[in-house]
From TrEMBL:
GO process annotations (BP): cellular response to iron ion
Pfam families: Peripla_BP_2 (PF01497)
Signal keyword on record: yes
Organism: Eubacterium callanderi
Fe/B12 periplasmic-binding domain sequence ranges: 56-325
Similarity comment: family membership: Belongs to the bacterial solute-binding protein 8 family.
Record lineage: Bacteria, Bacillati, Bacillota, Clostridia, Eubacteriales
SUPFAM superfamilies: Helical backbone' metal receptor
Keyword Signal: yes
Signal peptide interval: 1-23
Protein name (Swiss-Prot/TrEMBL): Iron complex transport system substrate-binding protein
Keywords of the record: Signal
InterPro entries: ABC_Transporter_SBP, ABC_transptr_periplasmic_BD
Length: 362
């Protein structure tokens, strides 16, 4: 009996050692994966070790306040944003989607993106999203225990998707972000697949006007690509800049057939139709004579800037520039679906009118 008992005990011990060893090995691998998952490469090329738990974030880049809100499904973790981002929020449809966003602090970040480190420390964020040229700010943040994550200004759609992916990883919202990126990819692919039809079509000449100072979108502006993709010809494509100031004489020489007015200032189509801007005469421009001046949409952010709603901007521009080629989608139906899927909001018809500036564009 004693020998049987000792034999059984030995067997149990051996089994426990085998499975215990396996469990120990498994835990080690699991922990290694966990640590690796918290190391990312940001858009400054830096290897960034993220905190194990992220409960608070600060955001210096203006467009990324609304993007972080979208990806994270709310503003609970956002403690500080750029005051310019707050100013944009107050003019956007996002005020209806997220009234609580108005309570986020703006006193720690300046409009020039500099950070008051002492004030930001009082809010105790674990992570701060910054631009990829803010090396000095990054060092200051690291010195006080705040992890900087650099984002890149999205000069093209690929950069935009990289930034979205990065934010999703930081916030542990990768599945949602991938769905958003899939929508971006599907929309861009749709327009790329129509490029032969677009090339054969009458491509309207288009001016993308940023403000009353006659700053226009040049070849290095993301809107140049959006215009071309959706069947327009940017009259300022010969200017190798993001935005370039021109004079009225140059615009008269270009004589665009379509004019888009950005939301970087409050210029409206009627200002051009009625020649309200002092020192400028728009009366002989084809776009004005033919009533083809459009104020661009504003959703959770102005659509002029690269943002989560850029696919909707593509669809809106396509419907204006090449309605016959891009007749197989309905922008009103698509924006409803998008807002339901990514913002969990059922858009009413009048809300769509507000986002699309329908009244101003009549």
């Amino acid at each position: 009996m004693k020998k049987k008992w000792l034999k059984a005990a030995g067997l149990c011990l051996a089994v426990s050692l085998i499975f215990g060893g396996c469990a120990s090995s498994g835990n080690t691998a699991e922990n290694a994966d966990k640590v690796e998952a918290h190391v990312i490469t940001d858009e400054g090329g830096n290897q960034v070790e993220l905190p194990e738990k992220i409960t608070k974030v600060a955001i210096t880049p203006i467009p990324w306040a609304s993007a972080v809100w979208t990806i994270d499904g709310g503003s609970d973790r956002i403690v500080s944003i750029n005051p310019s981002a707050m100013a944009q929020y107050k003019k956007s449809f996002m005020t209806k989607l997220a009234p609580e966003f108005a309570d986020i602090s703006t006193g720690e970040i300046s409009q020039d993106f500099s950070i008051n480190i002492e004030e930001l420390m009082k809010l105790s964020p674990e992570v701060a999203f910054i631009w990829n040229d803010q090396e000095a700010e990054a060092e200051k943040l690291k010195a006080v225990g705040i992890t900087p994550v650099m984002l890149n200004y999205a000069e093209n759609l690929e950069n935009l998707k990289k930034d979205l992916t990065l934010v999703g990883r930081v916030l542990n919202k990768e599945d949602f972000t991938q769905e958003l990126i899939d929508y971006h990819n599907d929309t861009e692919t749709y327009f790329i697949n129509k490029k032969d039809q677009v090339a054969a079509a009458d491509q309207k000449s288009v001016l993308y006007l940023q403000n009353k100072k006659l700053s226009v979108a040049g070849s290095k502006n993301i809107n140049n690509y959006l215009l071309e993709l959706t069947g327009g010809r940017n009259v300022a494509a010969g200017l190798e800049k993001k935005w370039a100031e021109v004079n009225m004489e140059q615009i008269m020489e270009w004589n665009p057939e379509i004019i888009y007015l950005s939301n970087f200032d409050d210029t409206m189509p009627e200002d051009l139709y009625e020649n309200k801007i002092e020192g400028q005469d728009w009366s002989n421009i084809d776009a004005v004579k033919n009533h083809r001046v459009y104020k661009t949409p504003v959703g959770t952010l102005r659509w002029d800037a690269p943002c989560v709603e850029t696919p909707l901007m593509l669809k809106w521009m396509g419907s204006i520039q090449q309605p016959e080629i891009f007749s197989d989608y309905d922008i009103r139906s698509d924006i409803k679906d998008f807002y339901k899927k990514f913002f969990n909001h059922d858009l009413a018809e009048e809300e769509i009118d507000t986002i699309y500036n329908v009244k101003a564009n009549q």
